[in-house]
Each structure stands twice: as structure tokens, then as C-alpha cells.
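Listing 4. Sequential folding, example run.
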Amino acid sequence: MKPTIRDVAKRAGVSISTVSRVMNAPETVVEDKRSRVLEAIETLQYQPNGFARGLIYKKSDTLGVMIPDIENPYYAGLIRGMQDAAVRLNHSLMICNTDRDHDRLLSYIHSFYEKQVDGIIFASDALHEDYYEEMLRHRLPFVLASTNAPQFDIPSVDIDDEKAAFDAVLHLIESGHKAIGMISFPLGETISGYPRYDGFQRALREHGLQAYETCVEFAAHRFEDAYAAAGRLLADHPELTAIFAASDEFAMGAISFVRESGRSVPADVSVVGFDNIRMADMFIPKLTTVAQPVYEIGYRAVCKLHELATTGEVKELREKLPHRLIIRESTRSL
């Protein structure tokens, strides 16, 4: 059987509380006792039970992370940033995939509470009131990553989606395109749905292209949904010379439809994506896209949660990181 803290105390000739203090606050134990305890730990190869310590000290050094779709390549960069920050701050991550399922998400919150996580990162989804109330009920510190909830005073790290979408469409307009359509997330179902749609609309309005404000098709969250949406969009508006897609995966779906329908990107239709996932630079043609600092969003979210869990507050409630437009092969000037 594995040695216990009792075994260590017996071998060192000290109390269990002394062993505990040596492991957690060694400077409070006199040198003779400290040396005996450390020698006993090494001899017995004692490993403290992390879960038990969490129950005692109400601190597990574990952070819960909820993401909506583990298959979406966007989350690879986000989680990598979280992981690197967690390692630096001596935390581990417990990652759960919600599939945007209401009941599953609430059950994860309860599970995190039972497992004594130090806090939760809620990533890239709308924070509904019952989610918010459940986390408050369990008194769990939480931070939003790649999303925001202006109706609540919850720390968040994301970008200005409306401005980023505006800049993407502005690039098409400045490249000579006027007949521009959009493949959008369903409005209201995702946190970035309305802001990216609004950025598209504003760019058209400010440049006298209101006639194309209705050239929008909506897709769920996958490549195949965007492929179908591109078919509907170009069937209704064959005059379009450019498409703004609300994600890189949407852009790839649109490009695949355009090419398979006998046209070329960017010769016939220019396409702009959003996110700058790793595949954006591998796809053919390479995607022009809005680059989110995905890794940095994940990294800063963990740092912000650590700050909140440690001090009870954060210096910056709503942190906006900069985006940038990366021009590659999927767009051209007219």
C-alpha cells in the first residue's frame, strides 16, 4: 500500500500536523523536525494526495474549462495558451466539451464544484443568466475567454468582433469589390454572431453599399453548413464578387463550393475568413483572414482567473486584445 501522512509522522517521530506544515509552510518548522520529516518522506517515497489536500485547504490548483466544440480547430490555440499559463502558475486544467447543450453545461458546473476547482473559464459561448446564477450559487470564480457578457460584471478576454469584421469587409471594399455577401453565424446563438454581422453591415452602409446588406446566409458551426450556405448565397446573388465568412472554417466551406461549382477563388470570387487558425495558411488558396490572438486570449484568461481566485478582484474587467488583417491568396483587387 502507498505510504500515508500517518506513516511519515510515525517514522519521523512528529505529529501529522507537523508533517503537513513541512509540506506547506516549511519555514514554520524547526530545522531538526523539518529534516526528520523530509528524510521520512524520501525514504517512504511519500506522495501527498492532491484531492485530499484540496478538501483540507479548499484549494485544488485545478481550473475548469468549458468549451463548446472540441472538434473546432480554433480551440487548439486557445487551449494551448491556457495550458502554458496554467503550467507557469502551477495549475492543471480540467477541460469539458459542452456541445452547447444547456443541461450538460449546468452539470459540468456542478461537477467542477464537487471536484473543488479553484475557478472556471467559460470559453467562446453566450453566458446565459442561468449559467451565471449557477456559478454564483456555487461561489466559483470565473472568467470569460473569447466571449463577453456586458450585462454582468464578469472578467473577460476577447477582441472587438464588430471592428474586426468591419476591417475585413473594408479590405474587400478598398480592393474594388461592391457586390459583397456574408456567411454568418446564427444571430443570437453565438456571442460573435451579432457583432460580426453588425461589422459587415456598417462597412457597407458607410460606403454606400446598402443594397447588399441583405446578401447574408446563416450557417451553424461546421464546414458543411457553410458549404451549403455558400450555395444558397450565390444562387440568390450570382453577381457577388466577394464573400466575408464569419470563421475560417466557413471560408473554407465557401471556397470549396465556389471551386466545385466551376468558378475560381480569387479570380471570380474573393473570400475573407476570420480567426487565422493554423490551417488558414495551409489551405489552397491560403486564406485572407482576420487574425485573433487566440493563444494570448487563452493565456490571459488563465492569468486573469488566477488573479481573481487569489485576490478576489482583477485590475482590468474587460480586456480587449488587438486583431489584425492578414492578406493572403483568397482575395484580389478588381
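-- end of first protein; second protein begins --
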Amino acid sequence: MPTPHRTLGDRTVGAVGLGAMPLSIEGHPDEARAIATVHAALDAGVTLLDTADSYHPPGGETGANERLVARALAAYGGDRDAVLVATKGGRGRSADGGWTVDGRPEHLRRAAEGSARRLGADAIGLYQLHKPDPAVPYAESLGAVRELLDAGTVRLAGVSNVDREQILLAREILGDRLVSVQNRYSPAVRDSEPELRLCAELGLAFLPWSPLGGISRSSLDGSSVLAEADPRFGAFHRVARARGVSPQRVALAWLLARPGGHVLPIPGASRPETARDSARAAELTLTEGELAELDAVPEQ
């Protein structure tokens, strides 16, 4: 059976997290269903919730998703102390629905302090630098994260949308307080393989965002609804039919089985049943033959 937990620094969390982004961006569900989705994930054993200050519709309020996560946790009747909330800073939304980048140290300090207030936290459990800003030396942005760690505003740090050199620089500047890397990785998008391997070597958790790409549409496509089955990813559907489970669950189990045991997928969900299904991927053990079939890179 796959290991049902993953390690982030000194914290242990469930092997599958919840990406909260679809609960607040375009096409998001109403608040009642959004909170029910978070609660369903927590009840199913999810203890990592991933959010960001930029997860809101164009023209919406910065931190909308963080506030939603905070309200969902406040209303949860289970063990809230076991939950690690990870948020991100350094990106924003433009009026036309695009995504901006701001890695200036002064912006990151303000952003982290705002995130902590919205989450109602004395310190942010895991703060992730959302994306390198080409207009700002990456070392300066990382220096701001180090200052946030030193000040106690942030307990653990992560980086996102980075290459190998940027991971190594982050490790040099943040030391062992750097615990995670969040890059896009999925059945359809596998170009972060070098970064995934480096994380295993360094003992860092690898959090693939949009982990169901090729099986489901990404939330960055404007919706978390399922796309039509792509024949390039037929192996995931074949294994799912044989196992009597969803292809999404197979895709997450495949990610959990990547060498190193350090992959912690954070699939999005906008319905309680989807959140529950994703969490159960930690219970699915794939055979060597199934993994070999799923490992084959689909032809473009």
C-alpha cells in the first residue's frame, strides 16, 4: 500500500492534499458547497490545504480563497490542529483574467503579513514563493522569504514554478527551512522530471500542481470540470476500468508511486465527492505492470 503520509519539514500530512483554487476563481461553486468540499477532504484524511492570495476572479478581492479556507476551518468540527495550510505570494490577477508576477521583497513582506491576517494565523504554516519575477533577482525575493522565516511570520518555506538552479539557490539561501517545491506535473505535463528528481535528492517534498492534467482540465483553464477523454492517456482509463475506480484516482496513485516517495499531489476539487475520491488515491496500490504502462510518455 502507498505510504499514506508525506513529510514537510517537521510536519507530517496526508499523502494527498487539496488545492483550494477552484473554490474561488472563475466558475467557483457557492460558499456552502465550497466549504462542504473542504470538510469532505478533511474528513477523508486530507491535512494539507493549498491556497494563495491571488486565487480570486478578475477584479475580485485579494485573498478571497484564503478567507474561504479560514472560514471552512473555523466551521470544521474535526481536528483542526492536524491541518497545515500552505499559501503563496508573489502573483496577482489582471483585469482581463491574466496572471501577474511581483517578486519585490517589499511586496512579499506585505503579502505574507496580509495572508497571515486573513488565515487568522500567528504564523503561516507553509509559505511558497509563487513564481520567480524576471524583473527581480531571484536571490532578493528569496531573501525576503528568509526574513519572514526569521521574523516568525512563516514557519516553513517552499518555492513554485522553478528550475533546478532556482531550487539549489533557494536551498542555499533558506537552508533546511525550505521544505517543498510546487511545479506543474501530471500525466500530460512531465517536463519537471529533473526538478522532481532533485527534490528526492535534497529531501524536499514535490507538490505537483494541476496533477490531473491529461485526465481533467486544469483550474487554470477556467474550470475544474472534466475534459473529454484524450486517447493519449488511455492507459489511465484502462487501469481505472480494470480496478473499478476513477481515472483521476489512478493518476494520483501514479504520482504517489513516483520514485523517492516525496510526491504530494494537490488536486483541486469543487464538489465533496471529488475531494473524497482524490483522497482515496492513497489507498490504491498499483502493480509494477500498471506503473510501467502509465509511465509511458504519450505521443503528442
